[in-house]
Amino acid sequence: MHYFTPKRCTESNKIMYHDKATAQRAADQSFIERGTELWVYRCEYCGTWHLTHRDPRTSYRAVPLNQELKPHSRKKGYKPRRR
Ligand SMILES: [Zn+2]
Q1: pLDDT tens, 47-67?
Q2: What are the sequence ranges of the domains in the chain?
Q3: What segment(s) does the record annotate as region Disordered (predicted)?
C-alpha cells in the first residue's frame, strides 16, 4: 500500500491544500466518512487552504458556554502579534 503523506502547515499543523477545490473535496469526504462537518479557509500564514471544525463565519460571534474560550485571551490593550 502506498500512502500519500500530506504536507502540514508549520503554523497550524494542518494539512495543506493548494487549491480550494481539493480542500473542499477533503471536507466533503470527511463528512461522508466520519460525519464530521469541516469548513475550508485560507491560511494567512502559509497561503494554502486548510480545514477547520468551526465555521469561520460564526467563530467570531457568540461562543456557546460549553465551548471554553480559546487559549489566547484578549486582554485589554493587548494586540495579538501577527506572525
Ligand atoms: Zn497554514
Answers
A1: 999 999 987 666 555 555 555
A2: 1-65
A3: 60-83
